[in-house]
Amino acid sequence: MKHFSVFTSDPNLELALRFIEQHNLAHEVHLNRTRFWIPDGAILTEFYLRFETFQVVTDSEDLVTGREQDH
């Protein structure tokens, strides 16, 4: 399962929210961005083919700010 985010200011936000709804994906809406999870397989492949600008959320990322944490 991959963890992604799309910023509220992204021009593709509406398309992403439709994709999330269409595929009934787990997601969390925040002020600055929406985080969502896509399982491996056909849905993930479709996502990669349709969207290029969304970020993978890493384990070292502060989930509140979206910035990498210093370790």
Element-level helix/strand string: EHEEHE
Cα-atom radius of gyration: 12 Å
Could you tell me the mean pLDDT?
Answer: 86
DSSP strand (E) fraction?
Answer: 15-25%
Class computed from helices, strands and strand pairing: alpha+beta
In this structure, how is the largest beta sheet organized?
A: 4 strands, antiparallel
Low-pLDDT segments: none
Number of helices: 2
Strand count: 4
- Principal-axis shape equals globular
Q: Fraction of residues in helices? A: 25-40%
Describe this structure as you would to a colleague.
With 71 residues, the protein is α+β, with helices and mostly antiparallel strands. 27% of the residues lie in helices and 24% in strands. The protein is built from two helices and four strands; from the N terminus they run βαββαβ. The chain has helices at 13-22, 42-50, and strands at residues 2-7, 27-29, 33-38, 55-56. The chain has a four-stranded antiparallel beta sheet, covered by helices on one side. A hairpin with a 3-residue loop joins strand 2 and strand 3 (33-38). The longest helix has 10 residues, at 13-22. It is globular. The model has no long low-confidence stretch (mean pLDDT 86).
Write the layout of secondary structure elements.
Elements: E1 2-7, H1 13-22, E2 27-29, E3 33-38, H2 42-50, E4 55-56
Antiparallel strand pairs: 1-3, 1-4, 2-3
Which descriptors apply to this entry?
71 residues; alpha+beta; globular
Q: In a nutshell, what does this entry contain?
A:
By secondary structure, the chain is an alpha+beta fold. It has helices spanning 13-22, 42-50, and strands at 2-7, 27-29, 33-38, 55-56. The chain contains two helices and four strands.
